[in-house]
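Researcher: Here's a chain I'd like modeled. Treat it as a single chain, no partners, no ligands.
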Amino acid sequence: MFRNRQDAARQLANMLKGRSFHDPLVLAIPRGGVAIGAVLAHEIGADLDVVLSRKLGAPGQPELAIGAISEDGRVYFNEYGRQLFDNNDPYVIRERKHQLMEIAKRKELFRRIRPRARIEGRSVIVTDDGIATGSTMTAALRTIRTEQPHEVIVAVPVASPSRLRSIRNWCDEAICLLCPEDFWAIGEFYEDFSQLDDDDVAELFRAADSHAETRSA
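Model: Modeled as a single isolated chain. Structure tokens:
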């Protein structure tokens, strides 16, 4: 059990400290993942950015993922989604459009603070506050892979065992502090799992910029 995201991130950072990275970059999945990523980036001396993948929710059950969509518009279906849908399904077309609009809003907000980080040739650590279905993480990793990073490491505090096994197919290494068989939801492993809004994420970015300036001074 973690006290909060910052506690989880500090424990995760201890697994990464002392390792040799090539121009490290932490890519966090908003929103909760940015709270993890900000601490990781500070602790290991890496740059921080976001990777903007979004979950595709099921009809009438938006919290139930059928897959995810990446920033470049590519759709990834999980096993459940593949059984019911394809890219030409009218519901998927509507949901894809909606989630791309949400990605565009966040892109506008975050890119006002900083430009998109270069990925090519870098050690990329991809993080979130946990992995439940794995859909958004998989969509993110598939996009990151196209940009020729030096290596891709997934680092998360907690994950479903079956989803973590699947995620390993898309990265060079996966680091996870807790991988319980009895897994229902990410929030059950945090004492404080308060939701963040976009303004909270923007403030984390600004604080990360301040830390980076201090580090390079």
